Amino acid sequence: MKEKELIQIIKSTLNSEYIGDDCAYLKDLGIVISQDSLVEDVHFSLDYTTPYQLGWKSAAVNISDICASGAKPKYLTISLSLPNKVNESFVKEFYQGAKSVSNDVEIVGGDITGSDKIYISVCAIGLTNGRKISSRSNAKVGYKVIVSGEHGNSAEGLRLLQKGILTPEKFVRAHLMPVPQIDFSEYLAKNADFDYAMMDTSDGLADALIQIANSSGVAIKIDTSKIPHDTSLNMETVLYGGEDYGLVAAIPSEFACSYPVIGEVIAGAGLIIDGQKFVNIDNKLYNHFEEKNEN
Amino acid sequence: MKEKELIQIIKSTLNSEYIGDDCAYLKDLGIVISQDSLVEDVHFSLDYTTPYQLGWKSAAVNISDICASGAKPKYLTISLSLPNKVNESFVKEFYQGAKSVSNDVEIVGGDITGSDKIYISVCAIGLTNGRKISSRSNAKVGYKVIVSGEHGNSAEGLRLLQKGILTPEKFVRAHLMPVPQIDFSEYLAKNADFDYAMMDTSDGLADALIQIANSSGVAIKIDTSKIPHDTSLNMETVLYGGEDYGLVAAIPSEFACSYPVIGEVIAGAGLIIDGQKFVNIDNKLYNHFEEKNEN
Hints:
Chain A is an alpha+beta fold.
């Protein structure tokens, strides 16, 4: 089963208003909360990741989820399950990496248990502080789509690392030590007097766009020439690579900001990339590209 | 390395006031937060655990941590890492079990990823609601020690389950579906106008007592004949069995309550069981008993 089908099962079992966005918005407490896991040999490999980098990335990807909501990242708890091969210095360097992502975020708890492989689960709390909180279902026809950061770098970095290649450092670093887009998030959330949709691009830029389109009941039309990316990368890597932890948002067209506009929200369904319409089910979106590759 | 040594490393790396108790008390938000994990073949086996029971226990042990702080359990997020062998009905039954522990607790988020084995990490939030929050370092000389629930039942249940024996149901149920001590916690936290120490007995009653004694810089003296337990169990199982998820607290001797008093806080260090003093390092405490068994 795919992750998204299982989430549908969870949603229907719990019958909860909270499940759906990357963060749950707990209005009574003025916080958002999210939890994400990294599993050895699924999400990372110690062959090319240092304990410091692993700690950094574990914290960064969860801080990124909070940024996607517009809240201010504040607290983390970290649950580590570690095999015997892991020693004292691993734990020390892991936490040094985790706490280095942001001086404004404090690690306040968690636990350690034994396991066969390394499992890391991080829970992140963000403060709403009167900010406007996003939802992926908030995109409206006429909105523009903006994006932060270059896309595709992380996937290229992973490709290089898996071949044992450590340069260009820009790509490798994008994969191992992603930087959560705190400024982009804060700028939008502090200045928004409107509903807006925002997601991080952890599963790829195209995936985030289609999630927003589907949740909002609209179509999103993008112009790939407007997406910031390294010109050495092909557009498939840029659109589908994943793990760049940029942010993509749909906001009113009149809202002034300096971030690149890559598209617009229109009536309909699905994602329209350079005039070509893609189906609105994400695995078909992937399948389409697989078919293209075979031609 | 032992869990407790690793926690010391984390504490010194983070230099945080929060690490130490099972919950972090975030005063600015009026909440406590804790995170705990269950790993397949370390903490449970599908040989004798249904998905419903696993969901129940995952929620219950984290609700128990919140109870140990005195806060009111309110929200959970659950991170599941699942191998391919796990199907739709597993996820559904797991969440049905998790949500059945308490009607007052809501599951608001989490994620699902792939993995080799089942790995569950739950983050729990409790509301302080003006209650007095406990700390394991709050025991004072002259306090009495009270306990909730029978001890040893869960360990006996595990012993039976591992042999394929499913009765007496009381023991098996104590292991598979522990009940967090919400009433005991609420009674104490709502009525306390004093500092008090409280822990759950997840790692065993003796372990909780010595953690409180060590953190508070006192000794704790107990009379095993006062500990509620099934008379078919030996005292080692009652003291060291673990996973009963009872609560043990050190409170002023004049505070009136109907819970069994099993001992008192005195000057000194370590744990005094029926007049016999045990060293104040928990693995030596265990070793002592191992030596005794050999005689």
